What does this fold into?
Amino acid sequence: MKLARIFLVLAGLAASPSLLTAANPAVLRAGDNIAICGDSITEQKLYSAYLEDYFLACQPAAKLEATQFGWGGETSWGFRDRMQNDVLPFEPDVATLCYGMNDGDYRGTEVERVEKYRAAVEGVVKNFKKAGVREIIVGSPGPVDSTSFKGAWFRPPITTVEYNQTLADLAAAADKVATAEGVRFANLHAEGMRVMAAMKEKYGTNYFLFGDDGIHPKEAGHLVMAYAFLKALGCDGNIGTIELDLSSGKANASAGHKIVAAANGAVTVKSSRYPFCFSGDPANADATSGVIEFLPFNEQLNRFRLVVRQAPAGVTRLKVTWGKQTKEFTPAQLEQGINLAAEFIENPFSEPFKKVHEAVLRQQRYETPMVKDILHSVPDWKRNNVSGAADLVKPLVAMDAKLRQAAAKSVVPVTHEIRITP
It folds into this structure.
């Protein structure tokens, strides 16, 4: 394993409308090391954690690894200047960027500043290419919240409409870089604006998708970011399929799932691949369960299908019990197949998924001070002849590798039963 197999540059991957709808070939390969890079929004360790949760539990490719490189207050040119020391030595295979919120300086659009951003993003892409990074996703900045954003304390007042126009102009500049450099573009701004309008229409203007300060998204906003990243990465969303024939009692399952038993309308499955799980009050922006109504996460990225054939003659409805919940479907619906992940928000994977998320957070919470407080300072310490400075890197990397391994091992097989009754 590479020494650097700990860093994932996934920082601003929201797809443009074309990326969100058109066929998008897979980017990720088995064993990839992905680096998640961005400013304080990345340093929140929310969308970056959702991404790593998905990589480990949903397994779009085998044995994926990720690390977040968020740095509060950073600009694209700030990252360009530090990436040689802080990121490239870890040899990521895939990198994503999420910059622009600070680059706009909380002002109206300034041509010179947009050009500075464009040139810096171009420089970052070229540096990644030179270092051998196989895939680069240029993410645009997201929007500011149309209700809670009040500008920045260190700048004259600016309206939400004005700053969202600045951010849209930066997104257009990022798109131009991606096109010119032949890399992928993720339009976080357009996707965020679309979902924000839908959420506020349903739950009211005080649903702050992009945070109480209008800048730093809440959990629901970060799920929008994670969705767009995963779409830009070309994840196909096939978690698994369980098939049950009620007449013969026979069942089969796709890769990542093993049939343990099947009899009397029930099938027991042992799954090493999880569906992505959501939680919380749908009306609360600190939860992930509500935003999926306006975000096709389940349809496009989280398909865990149950197919039931040969229902008893004359039966018009069948009950499906999975975990603590029971829902009714017609035989025709079940023969076509239902998405268990979408129909059963609380399910047998909910608690195991939480444990994976907790392990990922332990890893990513270590990575922020590892990079910001120590690794970034090593060159200065060396220049000042600080004793032992060069010896600090290996133990830091070793600890991070240990935490990543623990996160991977937290994905333990889950044995669960699906019961079908008239």
Q: What stands out?
A: The chain has 14 helices and 14 strands. The mean pLDDT is 92. The chain has two domains: 17-232, 238-349+413-421. The longest helix spans residues 350-374.
